[in-house]
Amino acid sequence: MDALPPSAIVWLTRPQGPLIGLAARRAGVRLVGVGAESPLTDPIPFADDAERFTDLRLAVTTTEARTLLLAAPPPRGPESDDAELLRLARSRNMSILSLEPFPGSLTAAALAEAAAWAESVRVIPLFCEHEAMQGLPDVLESFGPPRTVSVSFRSGRACSGLGARLFDAMHLVHTTLGMPESIDACVITEVSASGLRLEPAESLRHLHGDLTANLRYSGARAAAISLSDRGGRWFRGALALGEGGCLRLDETGVERIGPEGETIESRPEPGRPVDAVLEHVDPLALRSLAGALERAHDPRRARAAPPDPAPVLAMCEAALLSARTGQPESPATMERMVRP
After folding, report:
1. Cα 108 from chain centroid (whole Å)
2. Cα separation, 61 vs 73, whole angstroms
3. What percent of the chain has pLDDT over 90?
4. What is the per-residue pLDDT across 70-83, written as a single tens digit (0 to 9) for each?
5. What is the 3-state secondary structure (H, E, C) of the chain?
6. Main-chain dihedrals φ then ψ at residue 240, nearest 5 degrees
7. Which of the two ends of the chain, N or C, has the fewest CB atoms closer than 10 A to its terminal CB?
8. What is the mean pLDDT of the chain?
9. Amino acid 1: pLDDT
C-alpha cells in the first residue's frame, strides 16, 4: 500500500490561498486544515476537504498533521507568543515551516530555546537553500572573499511581506560577508488617502513597501540590498564582486565571470516544467515555494540545521530602526540589547 502524503495545516491570508494550495499540491503535501484570522469563504485549490479554522492554537492542539505552515504571521500578540506556539507545536511533534520570520523579533528569539528552533522551525523559501544554490559554499571558497555583495529580491504581496524579503536578503548577506558594523536603510511605504506617506511598521512581520540599505563592514567590504513586496513578479538575484571576478546568483543558476570577462563556470539549474496555474498566481513564486516544501518533507534529503535567527534578526531590526531614525544603526548593538 502506498504511503499517505505528508499532511499540514496552514495559516494564511485570503489572497495567499491559490498560491499555497497549488504549492502544496506540487510538493505532494496534503492540506488538512486552512486557517485565517477572519473566516475563509473562498475556495482554495486542492484543499476543498480541509477543515477551516480561525483559532490557530486550538487547531495545533487538535490536528493530526505533523507540519504547521505559517504563510502569514500568527495573530498579533505579545512577543512571548512565538515561544509559546513553538512549545505547543513541539508538544504535538509538529514542525513549523514559516514564510515570515519566525521567531519574529530578537526578543521572541531570545525567549525561544535555541535547540527548539533548530529542531522544529524552518523559514522558507530561503535563497541560499534553493536548488540552484547547491554547492554554493564550494563556489564561494573557490571564488575567494567577496569585496561587495548586491542583493535584489522582489515579489507581489500574495507571496509574503517585505519582512520576509528582508530576512531572506540579510540571511544571504550574513552567509557571504558576516555581520556588518552598521546599516543605513530607507523604507518607502504606501501613501495614505490624505496624501501622507505612512511610517514604516515597527514590526518586521507587518512591514510592507520598498526597502534599500547600505551595509558597512570593517576593511574593504560592503553590501547593498534593494527589496520590495510591491514588485509584482517574483525575483531573487545577487552579485558578488571580488578578486575572483564576478559571481552572479539567481534562481536560474550560478555564473562566475573572471576578471578579464571570461566565463569560468556556468551552472544553470535544470529546468522543471511549470504546471498550468491559476490567474494571478506567480509561477516563479510557486516553483520556489513548492520546491522548499518538497525539500522540507523529503526524508531522503539531508536536513541542514537552520541558521541561528539572532544575527539575521539583528541585521533586520537594525535596518528597521535606521529607516525610522534616518541614521546608520549597529546590528551588534541590537543583539546586545536582548543578549547581554
Report:
1. 17
2. 18
3. 51
4. 999 888 766 668 88
5. CCCCCCEEEEECCHHHHHHHHHHHHHHCCEEEEEECCCCCCCCCCCCCCCEEECCHHHHHHHCCCCEEEECCCCCCCCCHHHHHHHHHHHHCCCEEEECCCCCCCHHHHHHCCHHHHHHHEEECCCHHHCHHHCCHHHHHHHHCCEEEEEEEEECCCCCCCHHHHHHHHHHHHHHHHCCCCEEEEEEECCECCCCCECCCCCCHHHCCCEEEEEEECCCCCEEEEEEECCCCCCEEEEEEEECCEEEEEECCEEEEECCCCCEEEEEECCCCCCCCCCCCCCHHHHHHHHHHHHHHHCCCCCCCCCCCHHHHHHHHHHHHHHHHHCCCECHHHHHHHHCC
6. -120, 135
7. N
8. 86
9. 41
Q: Is the pLDDT of residue 86 over 80?
A: yes
Between CA 98 and CA 110 the distance in angstroms is 18
Contact criterion met (CB below 8 Å) for 225 and 237 = no
What pLDDT shows up at residue 280? 73
CA distance 149 to 171: 12
Q: How far apart are CA 97 and CA 124, in angstroms?
A: 7
pLDDT band at 115 (very low <50, low <70, confident <90, very high): low
Q: Would you give the distance in Å from CA 142 to the centre of its chain? A: 27
Res 169 pLDDT > 80: yes
Spatial CA neighbour of 238 closest among 38, 246, 1: 246
Confidence of residue 136 (pLDDT cuts 50, 70, 90): confident
First to last CA, the chain: 55
Region label for 41, one of left (φ > 0), alpha (ψ between -120 and 50) or beta (otherwise): alpha
